[in-house]
Structures are given as structure tokens and as C-alpha cells.
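Case study B.
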Amino acid sequence: MSALDEPGLAADTADAGVDVRRVRRQRRAELISAALHSKTFVVGMAIVVFWLFSALTWRWVVTNPQAVDPGATLASPSADHWFGTDNLGRDVFARVIAGAAPVLTIAPLATLLGLFGGITVGLVTGYYRGWTDDVFSRVVDALLAFPLIIMAVLVLASLGRSPRNVILVIGIIFTPLIARTVRSAVLVEREGEYVAAARLRGERGPRIMVVEILPNITAPILVEGTIRLGYAIFAASTLAFLGLGIQDPSPDWGLAIANGQAYLQVAWWMVVFPAAALATLVVGVNLIADGLRRAIEE
Amino acid sequence: MARYLLRRLGLTLITLILVSFAVFAAAEVLPGDVGRTILGPYASQQQVDQLNHQLGTDETLVRRYVTWAGNFVRGDWGESPIQRVEVRPLVLDRLKNSLILGAFALVLIVPFSIALGVFAALHYGKALDRIISISGLSFVALPEFVVGVVVIVVFAVQLGWFPTTSQVPSADPVDIVRQCLLPCIPLMFVLFGYISRMARAGTMQALRSNYTRTAVLKGLPQRYVIVRHVLRNALLPTITVVSVQVGYLVGGLVVVEKLFNYPGIGLLILNAALGHDLPVLEASVLMIALIYTVSNLVADVLAALLNPRVRLAT
Amino acid sequence: MSTTERRQAVRIESLTVAYRRRGRLLRVLDDVSFSIGAGEAYGLVGESGCGKTTVAMSLMRYLPENAVVESGRVMFGEDDVLTASESTLRTWRGERMAMVYQDPGTALNPSIRVGEQIAEVYRFHKGMGKAEAIAAAMQMLTTVQISAPERIVRRYPHELSGGQQQRIMFAMSLATDPDLLVLDEPTTGLDATVEAEVLDLVEQLRTQFDASILFVSHNLGIVARMCERVGVLYAGRLIEEGPAAELFHEPRHPYTLGLLRCMPRMGMRKDADRLDPIPGSLPPIGAEIAGCVYADRCPIARDRCRAEPPPIVPVGEGHGARCFYHEEVPAIPPLTRPPDDAPAAVAGDGLLLKVDDLVKAYGSGGNQVTAVAGVDVEVGRGEVLGLVGESGSGKTSLAKCLVGLLDPSGGSIEFDSVDVTSGRRNREARRKLQMVFQNPDNALNPSHSVRTILRRSLELLAGVRGKDRQDEEMNDLARSVRLEPRHLDVRPSALSGGLKQRVAIARSFAGSPSLILCDEPTSALDVSVQAAILNLLVDLQRREGVSYVFISHDLAVVRYVADRIAVMYLGQIVDVGPADAVFEPPHHPYTEALLSAIPTLDPDAKVRMKLHGTLPSPSDPPSGCRFHTRCPRFLGDVCVNEEPPWQSTADGERYRCHIEPGELARLQADQEAPEHPTAP
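Model:
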């Protein structure tokens, strides 16, 4: 968009005389540097890396999050318990750090599941069009008519509440949503002359989808995946809060907030610290998505 | 235009039928043995079978669906086997309560979000634009219960300005604000994020379009260019976005109503799902889908009416 | 009128503009100076990326956000546009200076009636009330020759054709009788006949208004016809400037000369003349060049040219060239040798492709559009069939049916004595019938290397297995299209447009085809590159003995490469025959109109024949002869009611018309072409 009125700028300006390998390497470097130049991306990355690190290493970093100190229930923040203790006398700081683990297990797995399903469905419906596509569009419309949370509530109440089911539900709900993004990217690409050229030399549909089209739509898929990861964290913790996801005694943040709700009047630290942790994580993921989108669009 | 309307109406109907089937399937197929769920593990198999027969759950799925859908359309929504009350008045009453909350949030936040989104686009790249964009981006990511508990801690517990739980407000405006404002804040955060971003994107696109260039190069005053040439084309897509948010809103209501213990349809759905109160669950979810699809239909028709390309198409 | 004595209306003084991109400044205009006299039309020509549009936008001071004016002034009378206050600028825009640009479809606001959009100018610059302004707008519509203005003012832009939309733009720009009119590629993207109409309009408006005109175009023919003086831009520098006629007949800069020589001119034939391409390609935008920007491609460049930038050297009355050795320019010999005398491959005789009553319809019910409505066509072995038609003529749909990308709705296609009507073809048929696409940026998969692209074609089409054998064949293939080995290991984005198209051509030749469909293969390329690609296609065709179906909107290009030509109108072939015969009278009136629409460098071209009205929709084609609504040789009821018969001429041409060859030849020998008899 920067080259608003100069078509030549938007077009490829590389010249055969230039060392082509250098050009290619330079482009990749430019994309990375564009992302790193974006403050939102760097800040988001820092936050997410911090929580990933916590999720992986809390065992060796903090005290046992399940350890009960009966003498200090609902203790306010102090030098001993930086974030205070909960109603059972468990250290809130240790639980907040350890609480990154469940959500950062469930959300990425759910996102991967959704990406796998979404890319498959999106490629097939976008490439072949026809009746599969019509049916798909109707199903997505119908699905969108349910708020995601209600859908999850319905299914989890029936299937039973376990982390595995949370992953399944979120992944399955994501499938058509991601498929929609993939499909619209495929619809653009399939009209490309390079796809026609592949058909003319006799390539089969599946190969065209995977080898010809897929590599050219990785950018929107990457952005979509990051955005969905943010939603998955949002959804997984909301389900935990509603009592439909992960169960006690997990240090999960959503669960911790649900438990702390009863003690709001006396122990605000039970909810405020997990809330802050969750807020930073989801905002961090969204900042990364925004930084990526900008870097790719530039 | 008439053709467009007809087509759109037909699609809405198909969607609704699909939804009703999905609701029914999700509610009735998945739980397995309904009678067992209701009576618990200690009831005898005979009691369970009897209850299942009473509830009609031992019939084939298709027949049950047809019976249920037929009754629903005729206004017979059945009785809740758990709460022992008629479903229809219960659902409609709770729906009304939720609509109060949802309408309150929409009325407050939609004009504000659009204004800020347009403002940000007009000041593209400046500090205020960055602040509006980044806060929108962050707000949209925050789960409602996270914002909710924080506002409760601050405004209800620490400052004591509002109650920690909300009741259905009376007609008194003060009471409406007192009961609705806190639960609406988490919803407004998310709505602000979505709507302001769309308004900003739409305005930017219109600002960069060739027709805006034409208008500027005609020497028209800036204000006039923005009001007459930019905004109309820019805000058309925002209408659709707002209507899609109605669907989100209901999901958000589940969380907020649970947090504030507000007797709305979200809480009803949650409790019905947890307690396997199938008639209540099915009816409420279907009502939500109905509201969502109808609001989408209205938005699309509205957008079409404002867009001469669609309006004049035969 | 002597141009030099005229009062200067606009003066651009050493304008230097750069675009900021990823923290770097890329210079797109470097020290550009020229002036436009009052009432004069000044043409600015150059290939894409040379900075033409930036000059035009600088004049209006409407540059993109990332543009930086490093130095220079744009003097409009006594005032500098670049430093004027916002409010002054607003008064000037629309009142004293106005602009019309490419793509009128997006230039008009889609949700405001066009009458109102014109009226706005009157309301804000002339202080008129709404009703008065609308009345003035209607008056203006009459001036730009729009019929029924009272109906048109109430229309929205999408209800108008491209030509009408552009007329609205002209009405809007001329509403205030401005001193300066900037036209930025005003006809690019319009069909040839519509383009001709718009150019006629501009010429005619010049007699009524006395605005100075800056006419920006990549098309030398148009500029030669419309402008008194011309400036040539190359890589952001004005390299030559002078009176149009003199500059085009006696260019004094090697680039201008090269540009003129590389264009196929009407009447050039592949067997007699060879195109003279400019070697190399344009420098990348923002490249820092120490000496002359053209030195790398220049046949007479020496060390001095690479060391210091040449100044503008006066070479004649108002004529200057940025070249140290401009005296040598007229003597530069053509680069290329005459056409290959090597014996052409024996193509054999007989029919290769036979298309019978081919129909392709889209949609269904009331929405059905018949893009191809019963086409019979034949291509012989080793023959090049040129396919000509405007947008909506169905030539692309026909092409896609031929190669099997679309399934025809009716009729049959026989290729090499095998029926290939359905899109499902065996390997043999695919190998022998390939395609070269229009847009080289899009025709090569951006994520695959050139090597992967060619290897896959060798494997699937030629059945070459094994890496060593593939590499061997690939080297041969690359050499045949003059690609160097270093080009094989990169992705297409690292190649220039011309090189990309070479890869695409190599790909189509991988399986030793017998017919290649070339769909506008050079229309996305710069003229300086086009010649090299055309030469390559002609050489390959000779050497391999293949046949081409060559689609192009550029009649000079088609004439150059084609042995036979078919002209399509609204899904039907209306004129077909040997290339020379089709281009000479008698020919179908539509062919006549297409030919007369070509803007040429030739100053004594004959009066243009005008087409009436707009192209009918293919979903509802006219009865009888499909061309009767626009035909300048319209006879009357017979054309409306009866489908015209095929007529055959003595030189082997066949056309579909009610007028017999003898009569038509007599009519078309006249210089004066009539308007449509029913035109108002």
C-alpha cells in the first residue's frame, strides 16, 4: 500500500543482473527484521516466551504449587508468599507460575488440531468448489449461529469434562473457522495461471492443493493460526472458569479465578494475580499475530 | 432486490433448520442414557427404562426430532423435567433479561467504537491511532471473566459503588446503570476491540480508494470528502460486523451472567447443560440461533439497501 | 504556433522524489525539469516504473504518504504547488487544475449518483445551488457527448460502461474550465475501439477548452497523436525532450531510438523483418547509478557514460537529449541480423486442430451467458493463427476450451485426429497441446524454483525419468530459450518479467508440443522486453515446426506473428483468413473498426471510423447480425433480422456479413468512414 500510485514499485523490481541468491536471502531477512522492528511483535514475543518458559520449568523454579500451609490460609501478599495464599493455604505465586502449563498445553494442541482440520477442509472445498463447498458454507453459517462457548458447553456437558475433551471441542469448532480463511485464500490462488499450468501438465488435484497452492498461502495460515491460538487460550480458560474444563487441583488460571470468586471480599489476590497472568498471555499472543500480519502485509 | 431478499431468506431458513438439527443432536444424542443421567447411578434399570419411555428418548432419533421440531414451531416447548416448570415462559423471561443486558452494552459501545475507529483511521500512524489500535487489539483478547473479576474487585469490593452480583433492573435509569454497567464492561471490552478495528479498516480502505482521490483532487473541502465520500462506503461493512457480534454477545453473556449471577439466558443454558435439562437447553439454544440469524438477515438487508450495487441489481 | 514562444503554464524544476520503503529511500525521480506552455499538450512517455505517475501526482501534489520530495519546484503560473497552503491547494484543485486517470471504474464513488458527483464541482467552486449544479452537470454531459444526459445523471457508476465512466471523469475535470488537465493513462485498460472514442473526445474537447495538458502514457502511438511536445522518462530521469514529430522521427537518445525500433509496426511480418529488442532490463527502482542510467543497455556507451551522468544537450529547436554522443544516435545500426535463414523444421501438411461449432455457456436459466457461440476454426501444422477480439469477445473462453481447462458446452474439438472435446485428456494430448500464459508473475509458482518447475514438466510431459537425464534435458531446454544456468536455481520472484516469460515458454516446450496456445504472451511485459520474447517465439516456431494459436489485442503484434487471423466478436468468429487478406479491404466492418482504432506514429493516418454505442452483453446478444447495433455499414432490417452469411473473397478470406465482397471493397476504399446510420 505504500506504493500507492507507482505501479512499478509494487511490481517485482529485482533484476536479472543482481545476484539472485542474495536477493532471496535478503527478502527473508527483511521479513524477519520487519517483524522484529514492530514493537508490538517484540513485546508480545517477550510475554509469550516468559510464560512458555514458566510452563516448562516451574517444577524447578517455584515451590510445590499443591503444598498446603494450614497456618496461613487466605494470607495477604507478603515476603513469604509474594502473591498471598489461597483458601487452602497454597502459595498463589507458585500456582500462577505453574498455571501456565495446563493452558499452554491445551490451547496449542487444540489450535494444531483445528489447523490440521481447517487446512484440509479449506483446501478441498476451495479447490473443488461444487457441492462440497455449498454444503460447507451452510454448515459454517449454522455453526456461527452458536456462540463458541455455548457449543462447547453443550458438548462438554454431554461428553464429560476432561482436558482431552476440551482440546477436541475447541479443535473441532476451530476447524470450519480456519477452513473459511484457508478457503478464501485458496479461491484466490486457484485462479492463478500457475495452477492452470499445473493442470495442463497433468497434475492431480491433491498434488496441486498440497504442492502448488499450500506453500503460497502459508502467510495467511500463520496469522490465522496465531489468532486462533489466542482464542484457544481464551476458550480453554473460560471453560475452566465455567467448571467445564480442567478440574481441581490443577493450578489453571481460569479455575483459580472461579475458586477465588467466593473469597472476593476477603482475598482479592486469589483472583487478581491469575487474571493478570491470563490477560498478559492472551494479549501477548494477539500482539504477535498483529506484528506478523503487519510484517507480511508490508 | 426482491430476488436477493428471497434468496437471503431461503438461506436463513436452511441455516435455521440445520441449527435446529444440530441443537437436537448435540443435546439428545451425545449424553447417552438420559434417564440414567437424571436418576443417577443408584436407580434400577427398570426405573431408568420407564423414565426414558416417558421422555420418549427410546424412540428413533428422526421421529423424536420431528416431534420436537413440530411442537416447537407450534409453541409447545414442553416442560422441564428438572425444574418442573413450563419451558416457554421460563426461556422467554430469561431471554428478556439477557436482552436488557445485551442492548445496554450495544447501545453504549457501538457508537463509541465506530467513532474511535474512524478517528484512528483519520489519524493513521499518529500516536492516538496506535493507542486506539493497540488497546482494541488487547481488549478483544481478554476473556470476559478476567475483566469481570477485576471490575468486581475494584468497583464493587474496594470502592463499593456497585453490587457484586446483579439483579434484573427496574425501569429506573439509575437502577439500570447500577445493575447493568459492571456486567457489561467485559462485553464492551471485546465489542470495542472488534468494532473499532473494523471501522478503522473500512475507513482506511475508503480513504485510500481512487474515488477519494478523485474527491480530493476535485478540491472539495476535507470535512465534506470524509462525510460524503469516505464514511458511507467505509461503514457499510461495519453494519455486518455489528450483527455478527450479536452471536458473540450471547456467548459472552454465559460467562458474565455466571460471574454476576444474573438470571439471563446464558446462565439458564449453562445450568441446563450441567443439569441435563434437555427441553430448556434445546429451546434456549434455538432461540439464540434464531436471534443471531435474524439479526444477520436484518444487517445484510440493511447493507444491501444502502449499497446501490446490490439494491439496483435485478 | 511556435511552442517556445508560448507562455509557460506549468514549469517543473529539477524535481527529485523518493519513496521511503523499509527505512530506505528509493529515488524514483531524479532532477526532472520541463515546462508546458499555455494550451499545449505535453506527452510524458516511459515504461512501467520510470516515474511517469509520480510526475503527474506531483503536479497535483497528491503523492503517497511515503513519498519524500527531496528537491525541486512545481511552478503553476507564479506559484509553487509543492509549498502552497492546504487551502490554496484546495481552491486550485478542481478549479485551475484537474486530473483524469486510468481505471474510471474505481475513480468514481460507487454510492453517489454520477450527476451529483459532477455537480459537486459546481457547488464548491462556482457556489451554485443543488438544482443549478445538476443542470450545469447535464450541460457538461452533452459537451462530453453523452446522449440522454437527463437519464445518465441519475445513474450510479456501476450502471455505466467503461467509456461512459471515463466521459463522466472528463466532464468532472473540465467543469471549471481548468488551466491544466493531467491525463494519466486515461485509456489504458479500455478496449481498442473505446480507447479510440475517448481519444477522439479529448481531441475534440481541446478545440473547446484551452487547458494545458500533461498526457502520461506508455503508448508512443497515442502520445504521438495527441501531443505537440514529448518527454521521455527512463529510470526516473528525463532522457530526451522535444517536439513530438521530430522526436519520434529523429530520436537523439539511444533509448528513444531503441523504444521506437523494438515496437512491431503495422505491416511488419515475421518472415521479412526481425524485431530489434533492447538488451537487458530496466534498473531496479532506487538503484544508485553513477553515470548514465541507460549505459548498461546502450549500444554506444563508453567508459565516460558509466562515470558521469550526461547533462541535457540541446540538439535542435526545443529538442534536447541526455546523451554525450547524441550525434551518433541516428547512425546506430539495428542490433539484430535479418531473420534466420536456417531451414525451418518440416512441419508437414494437413490439419492439426479442427474445432467444430464450439459452444461454451456459463450459468443457467435466465443468467446464462454464452461466451463462445458456435465457433468453427482450423489450425494447420506449423501454422500461426492469430486470434483477435476485445474483452467479452469470448477469445479467452475459447482458448481455455482448446487446451482443456474448460469443458465446452457443445461442439467438438479434434486435435491431431483425436477427439479431445472433453477436458480430460491423456498424456499424449497434453504433451502436444500446451499454453503460454499472459501474466508471467502469476504463471510460475512463486514457491518453486525454476529447476523444479521445468523438471516437473519434463517428467510429466516428456516422460523423462532420473535426475541426470532430467538435468541434461533441462539444460537443453534452458538453452533453447536463452536462459542461463544461474537462472535455474532461483525462484521466479528473483527474475525479471522477460526472464519469467522465457521460463514459461521453456515449460510449454518441455514435451515437444505440436500446438501452443499463446494467450497475450507479451501484454504484461514492457515494450523493450516484448520484442525479445516475440523474436524467441518466432524462432522456436520455425525451428520446432510447432503451430501457435496467438491471442492478442495488439493488432501489430498479431500481424507480425500470424499466418492466418481470426477476429471474434461477441462469441463468434466474424472474419477469418490469411493475415494480409484480413488486414486489407474488403474485410468485416468490425475488423475495419479495430484497424482504424490503432493509434499510430504515422502522421497521415486516415480518418478514424467510429463505432456507435457500447458492447452488448453476451447474455443477451443482438438478433440477426450480432454487430448490427454498432456497425458503421449497417444496412437496415436485413441486419437486424437475418443472420449474415459467410462471404468469401478472392484472397481466401471469409467474413460474416450481408454485404458482398465487391460492394464492401468499394465502400472500404473510401477514405471517409460513415457513422452508424441510426446514430443521433
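Chain B is about 80% helix and 0% strand. The remaining cases will be described in the next quarterly update.
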